[in-house]
Design goal:
Blueprint lengths: L2 H23 L19 H34 L1 H4 L3 H24 L6 H29 L6 H34 L17 H23 L1 H5 L12 E2 L4 E2 L14
Antiparallel strand pairs: 1-2
Helix pairs in contact: 1-2, 1-7, 2-4, 4-5, 5-6, 6-7
Protein name: Putative conserved plasma membrane protein
Membrane topology: Multi-pass membrane protein
Keywords: Membrane, Transmembrane, Transmembrane helix
Length: 265
Amino acid sequence: LHFIPIIICIAFLFTFIITYVWSVLNQDVYPLLPNVSDTGTLPPESCLFSLMLNLTTALILFSIYIRHKEITTVLGTKKLVDIIPFSTTFNRITTIVGILACVGLELMANFQETSVLAVHRIGLFICFWSAAVYIIMQAVITYWLQPEMNGLMMVLIRGFLGICVIIFMVTNLVTGDIAFREFSAAHINSSQTLKWTPDLPGWKWHVVSSGCEWFLILILALFLLSYFWDFKQITLEPPELEMLAEPGLHPVQEKSYKDLKILSL
């Protein structure tokens, strides 16, 4: 299991790096700090952008589930449920927030800004803000689970990453709005914002806004990578399946294997 966070981190960063290089080679974006979404907006790079993020999101959802089960088990072992009555509910809410972040990532990946801008922006908002809340809530849970699962250093790292997401997200929204206002004030066709260049109004604000986006991607990748140390301490057993045989739908006994019939759902 501990290799899954490494795979997620590499796949996550690989997606944005490849689509960036591809979009620059196709001259779809300006090389210096384009918006992350702009690098995966136009085909053919948009196809790879959506495909890779879909696959990565599936792995992230799996990691969120494993983390949820890990926390549930450790909370029971440490009997924190008695000490902190809301710990179980807190864990469930944290998992739901993590799933919301994945939903936002899917919306952002599959609804390009040139196709359905409103849905793309909603997805971006849900993804990053939910991710910020999820990381901070995980920092709180990590604090509860020390020293059995992690040390205080991991608590500080996750808390720091969560705060950084909030800071970069706010900075991105503010500077991005200023850049677009300056751009719009010049009465320039808004479709040109896909390819920001130094000669356009609002360029400096755009660079700051876009830089924040790239830092957000890096922070999310680092947080997911931090699960490496958690997953290294746990194992996942394959589920046990009980097959039923007709007509009484009783559990199949060893002697009745020859009469086994798989029932349709």
